[in-house]
DNA sequence: CTGGCCATTTAAAACGTTATAAATTCAGCA
DNA sequence: TGCTGAATTTATAACGTTTTAAATGGCCAG
């Protein structure tokens, strides 16, 4: 445990005084102003004369000043950090990376940093949230896998701690969210299967815990009811199931009587696994059965062009979440402006005949 | 710009004095000791009597004290933050998520947080590194996509700033890294293709910029040379190419004379795209051709069991990188202890006859 | 010339921690 | 008794910023 002191990578070579990282004091000495004035000038306080503000900014730029985040944080209590609760268990292709890319993009140019809080040994997600708020580790929180009565949302709402969820809840207190319209997605996707002449679509839905699973199911049911056709909701597997399990389940289902003739898959992995299972049974996609799936990367349509897909742009979602959270932190109190329901883009091909 | 002051979520209700988040002062008042003593006691300084240390720790635990990171950081100059340079452009399945999960696991229980620095508008990666070191935004850095003469490595080595790369360099200054033995992987994978009776394996390698591409190539070449068979290194595409492009390239290649009869794919997406391309040409995996691929998720083998795969555990890699970086920061100066070459696990099935 | 008011600038304190140097206590011993 | 040194504790200052309250100087009405 050789404890190294302050980082060694800081050249020392000064003409007048010590020359480390420039601080407010450096600028103050150069301009002959007081530290306070410099601080104010840089934050464009109206009480500082326009001329002084300009001069200070110039000097600051010249010497490459950037404020010490630790000091700011200590003084103001604001961390300038946005936390993302990352779930290691994402079967959705590129979920984590895309979302984070998006958030990072929204944070570009702001004072905010993105920090990842993985949900590991932190037993439950609620505990992680508790920990973060108690220790003031971030100014805002972003998380996904939202449940209808999500306890994290409850907690954060109670505390008045800013957050955005990916997905809606059914709680009475409205809160900021960004969500994909999974109802419309499922509805359109299922209608498409029926339009192609399929008479018994099957749904592979999300884990029942999560809100979006309900929307998927609702959209699916609405479409099959409208058409008055048979349907099935595949049991025993969901979008979180590993590919091998979905594959086996599909295969097994086909050994039983009255199998479905098409699938509405909520994800790419699910679609690929389904195709493999069906193919093992000797059935060909586009001939004996069809699939419509949600796509979040560009893999599926490249690998299986036969699958019709509706694209959900997770990077854009992340960007929206970042933006919404910044607004919330910035004081926006009209929650309805902080709720975004992103509309699925239905491909033009969906209008064509089956 | 309604600037909210200090976070509102902090109950106020004190009997004796103000009761906010407990600080060293709180403990000092309770125990009747000086703040300095408390600080020392909590850091287990030998100069504080054992009894005092124990009592202070008890009180600290009781009132749920946790040190203010901002204050520590301001005072010590240490940030207790590990930064990951995340490249949005990862075609490797789950790369970002896996690596980060791993790092987070290694950081569990330490004082370190994981913060993501995406490489976006920060024009080049070197500039991002420059920015991070200049502004002391982290105590250590982790990044991937390492190049033989990686400028980031150069810069950080010069500055003496702790870092770990995923991948090796060819720079003369040794530095901490964690790498997968891609030579052995490629060598074994190619040998396997040849053992299965294939006579003209093709390699789809990584982008030429990156060090690992060279190792892949070297392993591949060693195997084909040993066997004295024909070979091909597919041009125009690499592991970063989108699936659709790889698919088309493979298809196109088969329209030309003397095509390869097997593929060594460095990634799952690549393998899937190759299969699709070949299938478009009417060729069946396992019959007209074979593939051995590197797998980093569990998707490929579930979808295409015909593909023989060698698994690279990216989460474990992340964990190793985290551990190594902590050691480096902790003062370990024997670089050779900070260099890990992870050995591919060759499946037992590779020994069986083709 | 005094007093008051404005615009602008400033000094001092504080955030919570750690480092430096000094103080306190007490035992051992001349 | 008084001195030395070890063991333990403490006061003070500092990190870089923002906040609060106060100071400065100019200008005009009285």
Walk me through the topology.
Two copies of one chain form a homodimer.
Chain A (H helix, E strand, L loop, with lengths): L23 H8 L3 H8 L7 H14 L5 H8 L4 E6 L8 H13 L5 E6 L6 H10 L5 E4 L7 H9 L3 E4 L10 E4 L1 H14 L5 E4 L6 H17 L4 E2 L9 H13 L6 E4 L2 H13 L9 E6 L3 H5 L4 E4 L2 H16 L9 E4 L12
Parallel strand pairs in A: 1-2, 1-3, 3-4, 4-5, 5-11, 6-7, 6-8, 8-9, 9-10
The first copy, chain A, binds a DNA duplex (30 and 30 nucleotides) through helix 2 and helix 4.
Structure description:
Chain A has 354 residues and is α/β, with parallel strands linked by helices. Chain A is 42% helix and 14% strand. Chain A contains 13 helices and eleven strands. The first copy, chain A, has helices at 24-31, 35-42, 50-63, 69-76, 95-107, 125-134, 151-159, 182-195, 211-227, 243-255, 268-280, 299-303, 314-329, and strands at 81-86, 113-118, 140-143, 163-166, 177-180, 201-204, 232-233, 262-265, 290-295, 308-311, 339-342. In chain A, strands 2-1-3-4-5-11 form a six-stranded parallel β-sheet, with helices on both faces. A five-stranded parallel β-sheet of chain A has the order 7-6-8-9-10, with helices on both faces. In chain A, helix 11 (268-280) links the parallel strand 8 and strand 9 (290-295). In chain A, helix 2 packs across helix 3 (50-63), helix 8 (182-195) runs parallel beside helix 9 and helix 10 crosses helix 11. Chain A is elongated. The termini of chain A are far apart. Chains A and B meet through helix 4, helix 5, strand 2, helix 10 and helix 11 of A and helix 4, helix 5, strand 2, helix 10 and helix 11 of B. Strand 2 (113-118) of chain A pairs antiparallel with strand 2 (113-118) of chain B, so a sheet runs across the interface. Chain A binds a DNA duplex (30 and 30 nucleotides) through residues 23-25, 33-37, 39-40, 43, 47-49, 52, 67-68, 70-77.
């Amino acid at each position: 445990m050789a404890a190294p002191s302050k980082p060694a990578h800081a050249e020392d070579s000064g003409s007048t005084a010590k020359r480390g990282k420039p601080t407010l004091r450096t600028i103050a000495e150069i301009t002959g102003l007081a530290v306070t004035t410099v601080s104010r000038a840089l934050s464009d306080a109206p009480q500082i004369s326009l001329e002084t503000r300009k001069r200070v900014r110039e000097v600051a730029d010249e010497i490459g000043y950037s404020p010490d985040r630790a000091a700011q944080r200590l003084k103001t209590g604001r961390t300038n950090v946005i936390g993302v609760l990352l779930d290691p268990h994402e079967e959705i292709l590129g979920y984590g990376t895309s979302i984070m890319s998006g958030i990072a993009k929204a944070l570009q140019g702001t004072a905010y940093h993105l920090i990842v809080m993985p949900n590991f040994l932190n037993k439950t997600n609620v505990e992680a949230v508790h920990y973060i708020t108690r220790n003031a580790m971030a100014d805002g929180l972003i998380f996904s896998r939202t449940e209808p009565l999500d306890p994290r949302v409850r907690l954060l709402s109670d505390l008045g701690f800013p957050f955005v969820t990916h997905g809606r809840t059914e709680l009475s207190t409205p809160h900021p969210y960004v969500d994909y319209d999974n109802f419309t997605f499922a509805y359109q996707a299922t209608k498409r299967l029926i339009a192609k002449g399929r008479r018994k679509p099957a749904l592979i839905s999300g884990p029942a815990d999560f809100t979006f699973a309900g929307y998927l199911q609702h959209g699916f049911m609405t479409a099959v009811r409208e058409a008055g056709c048979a349907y099935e909701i595949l049991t025993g597997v969901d979008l979180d199931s590993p590919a091998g399990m979905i594959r086996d389940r599909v295969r097994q289902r086909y050994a039983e009587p009255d199998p479905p003739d098409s699938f509405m898959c909520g994800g790419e992995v699910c679609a690929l696994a389904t195709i493999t299972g069906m193919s093992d049974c000797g059935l060909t996609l586009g001939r004996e059965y069809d699939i419509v799936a949600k796509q979040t990367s560009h893999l599926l349509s490249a690998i299986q062009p036969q699958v019709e897909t509706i694209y959900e742009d997770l990077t854009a979602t992340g960007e929206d979440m970042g933006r919404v959270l910044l607004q919330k932190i910035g004081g926006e109190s009209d929650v309805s402006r902080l709720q975004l329901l992103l509309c699925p883009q239905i491909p033009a091909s969906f209008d064509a005949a089956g």
